[in-house]
Amino acid sequence: MTNDWIDIKNADVVFIIGANPANNHPASFAWINDARNRGAKLIVVDPAFTRSASAADVYAPLRPGTDIVFLGGIINYAIQNKLYNEEYVKAYTNALTLINPDFKGPADLDGYFSGYNKEKRAYDNSTWKYQTEKVTVKVKEKDASGKEVEVDKEVSVPKRAVNLDDPHTVWSHFKKHYARYTPEMVERVCGTPKDKFIQVAQLFCSTGAPDKSGAILYAMGQTQHTVGSQNVRSMAILQLVLGNIGIPGGGVNALRGESNVQGSTDQGVLFHLLPGYLGAPTDANPDLKSYYARFDTTSYWANGPRFFVNLMKAWYGDVAKPENDYCYNYIPKSSGNYSWISLFQAMYAGKIKGLFCMGQNPAVSGPNARMERQSLAKLEWMVAMDLFETETAGFWKAPGVDPKTINTEVFLLPALDAMEKEGSIVTSGRRIQWRPRVAAGPSGAHTDIWILDRLAKALKAAYAGSTDAKDRPILDLAWNYGEDPEPDVWLVAREMNGYALEDVKDAAGKTILAKGALLSSFGTIALAANYDAIACGSWIYAGYFAPADDGRGVWRPAARRRGQKDPGNLGLYPYWGYTWPLNRHILYNRASARPDGTPWAENKKLIWWDAAKKVWTGYDVPDFVPTKAPDAKANPAGLGLAAQSGTDPFIMKADGKGWLFAPTGLTDGPMPEHYEPLESPIKNALSGCQIDPVVKLWDTERGKSIGDNVGTTDKYPIICTTFRLVEHWQSGTMSRTLPWLAELQPDMFVMIGKELAEERGIKNGDMVQVSSARGEIKVVALVTSRMRPMKVDGKPVHIVRMPWHYGWQGLATGDVANDITPHVGDANTMIPEYKAFLVDVKKA
Amino acid sequence: MAKYGMLIDETRCTGCRGCQVACKQWNDLPGEETHNTGSYTNPPHLSAQTWNLIEYKEIDRGGQVGFFFLKRACMHCEHPACVSVCPVGALRKTPEGPVVYDDHKCIGCRYCMAACPFGIPKFDWQKGLLEGALIRKCTFCADRLSNGLIPACAKTCPSKAITFGERDQLIVEAENRIRKNPDKYVNHVYGKEEAGGTSILYLSAVPFEQLGLPKLGPAPVTTLSEQVMEYTLPFAGVWLATLAGLAAVFKFRERGAKQPEIGPAADDPHNKEASK
To answer: For chain A, which domains are there?
Structure first.
């Protein structure tokens, strides 16, 4: 979330698209309801009339997989009707920046952007780049004699126009691109009636006014598509255009799917990340220098190399030295995509020997799960760490599987639940809260940290005495979290927070952090002359465990605070826990003020420039250099934020601007363009390019029942999407085993509209067969008016919807929904396309 | 003494069923074995094991479906019919609001079931009469109230659809909400006057009958039930005598049977640990 859960109450319009918080984030409805009590309106856009939709002021249906068209339609509506915040767009986004004159977009190239290579199914993005110009600036340098002199230096900077509609501006391309996303196109592609769409567009665009704010809430309904990243980009762009980023009650708010998934992402559990969103080295970065070159030098990321060194000091202590590039060669360099689908493809091909499954249940949750279960059978060994014997732990005895044919050695390590161990948990709003252990677990079950501590120590013992260079990363690993019976989780917290290994000094030689002291801000790292005297396991968490005032004069580790003061009554509660980064609750909050530093409106004020004190002040911690005046000029030759001006709120971006057009960072285009899901009942109405042109297409075992088959409408005419219920949790491991939850949703089912049920002779409660190109499952039919057929491109289309919680273990059981989902992922992240695929439904 | 109530604002409810689970947890009620028969409502009805139930309703609102969630549990009437029909005084209206029952007095006659206009009291059909089968229903968490805690359902409600408080104040609050948002609500607080008034009050966006709440006049149902009771008391006497006779027969038979081993009953919630 750019904002926070509680901040939803400050919105004037809450727009839920691709999420169902009534089901999956029930506590959020307290804040949604508080906003509604104030008079805010709620919009819900979803293929089904969900429990969230039941509370909506405006509900609009859309066909799964068409969010870019819907959101693009709203962006176009804002442009055409001049409902955007022009001052914001000009000052804070890259709308005025000029793009390479050779750039061409889907409007010119029938769905493609310039630079496409058909053979490689990839883009060369050189034509998407900014135009640059050379400027000469005076910089201080030391001459040969060591004397400081002023010299002229030529620096290249992005070229900006004065007017939005100048040729080659981002805005002119943007306008042309979105002009194709008309209300008529929305109706044709999304199936949303035009008047409903206009009602949504009008209502949400009303938040473009400076005294209004609109929050977008989204979840997996946006991300689990082959165009998932571009769906999210569409929301970010819409919010930038309306000036809804950085202000109370605004933002692009990812409602994370698990209570601590934010925390685990922060710690770098994704294959392409190291902790703190430092990119993971790839084989394109064979040495430290090439890795450092990946960090921008004109944004806050200029400090990235420092943060990396701190991480290596946390992991390798004294062994990490400048002479050995801080053990850079100990970090594996990835040579490809190691995300979920790729991993299971590699496993199926027999390239992976062993698997640790820690609190994961791929036998139920993975796409084309039947194939993924067969992949598990190709392992030599598998370890499952979980609270119960999951379907994954018991894959060898799945229905229809003869255990004698499985050669995988399976270990089940009983683990403890979150309530049974002490530690931190991070909300979607980035608020880190330390929680005590409140219940004893069953005997024989252990905390994850206990298990991992034993494992690390056993590995170190196993390799002890080795002189082989490849074993050094294990032998040199600094592993010191206490002894039996239980490692000390506070020591882990201390390492993540960061502390001084030696006295840390600034450039003037003054000690800014004494040896042994905890970091209270990553600003110390940026200031330090000897920054390699700091060990910090996650720079964004710097300060989260350092002693801090809880607002009542009581000091305790920041994440353990429970102070309830709320300056400004915005619900920021800055003394409760600790919100990374630096206890900032609303990101990019420089944009909560006008370019001149005054609030956009009295009722939306968050931080503002205090001209007398020459400092940014307000209710939140400024996401900006606190003393940088609104009229501060950028120094193009400066490093980091010195290269940005007083009106550049997006400090993590190389140009300090919000990107309506992404010159870099995305594989499938600088602006979101609609492509159909891999399996779709219609031809792409926007262009001749049917699916995202850079999506990786797998063809393992094509033609066989479990293979990577692509369904077509002749056999599978119905659109299917998967969802979650409030009564069950993810793959059901923790909920299908509880009688109180099993009784609420006891059986696997599929939601079918009354019209489809009538066509197929299906009665409510009948058993039905749902089949796709990957196989079929038998489930209960729930016939409902909450699913309606849609008219798409002139044709009627039925949509059905299945929860994916069920498996064969536990009290509430049923067929696995993911047995029939496709093994294909997003063009950028490879997140599986669970939300739109083709099926057929008939009476079983 | 303050008289308590709960205001259930159906426009704020999202049907998450946190209240249904919290009720089971606090009252140590077992999960029932259920099946999906084409509805989210599960278990299908209130029962001796389920005292608070969310019922899901799809209501046509002029071509657009509406999805509504009725929280069904004891209304804790101001003039409870169940109390007035109970021949042994097992049911009682407390001054704080809850209608509670005394297991030691209940004889399992089920008159309260017949009398309740909301169909709330349920009989434990899983037990035979002589195993101490009793009436079960929501107690308004009287045990929590007497210890300064609010009812489990109100405590857990994440969307703040359930407000616990003093009944008089809740009526003022409910009427304020209607006044502030006249388009959002039906202009009526259900329970303010129904059946002589109830502790549980509802606000809704659709007519209450469509949600499944009975249309009742302001007269307490007790007036009617008391009339009925005039005739039933003598009948109850005969029924009691029959029961006593049956009990004697069973006792006589038991004497001949082998005594069961002494040990914790598997279904006794207090013996959960021991029976593992």
So the answer is: 1-257+585-673 (3.40.228.10), 340-466 (3.40.50.740), 718-843 (2.40.40.20)
